[in-house]
Specification:
Blueprint: H1 2-20, E1 25-28, E2 31-34, H2 36-82, H3 89-98, H4 102-109, H5 124-130, H6 134-145
Antiparallel strand pairs: 1-2
């Protein structure tokens, strides 16, 4: 979107310069006179080109702000990912199920005692079934039966 914004800004600016340089006079037997129709055309071209340039500025600024927001989200996401060490193995397993990380789910399933899980919460196996991650369901069933 940034490139499109720059392109529209340039086209709008060039269009405004062309519109400002349009000749609005016509020659008659009495000399040069201003033609109202040509003045109206000049005004319309100027308004349209300024509108195009404004759209270009908006696209350019919107792309810059969305880029900075995505960088902040990435930084926050990285700090959140590094904070998974403080989560319990059950919470890490829940995160692995939600992100469909089969390798991580397999590692964590071997560390969890499935017989002592809280009864009031959704079991990891039920959670994997809700997300329809069949491979993780099979892994969790294998570990919960042992």
């Amino acid at each position: 979107m940034r490139n499109l914004g720059i392109t529209l800004l340039i086209l709008g600016s060039v269009g405004a310069l062309v519109a400002l340089n349009l000749d609005t006079s016509v020659s008659t037997g009495f000399g040069q006179v201003n033609n109202i129709g040509l003045m109206n055309d000049r005004q319309n071209y100027l308004i349209a080109s300024c509108f195009i340039a404004l759209i270009g500025v908006i696209l350019f600024v919107a792309d810059r702000s969305s880029s900075s927001q995505s960088q902040q989200l990435t930084q926050n996401g990285e700090s959140k990912l590094s904070a998974t060490d403080t989560l319990s193995p059950l919470e890490q397993l829940t995160d692995a199920i939600c992100t469909n990380d089969i390798h991580k789910a397999t590692q964590l399933a071997s560390k969890i005692d499935f017989h002592n899980l809280p009864k009031d919460k959704v079991s990891p196996c039920e959670l994997a079934e809700m997300y329809e991650h069949n491979e993780i369901v099979e892994i969790l069933k294998r570990y919960s039966n042992t």
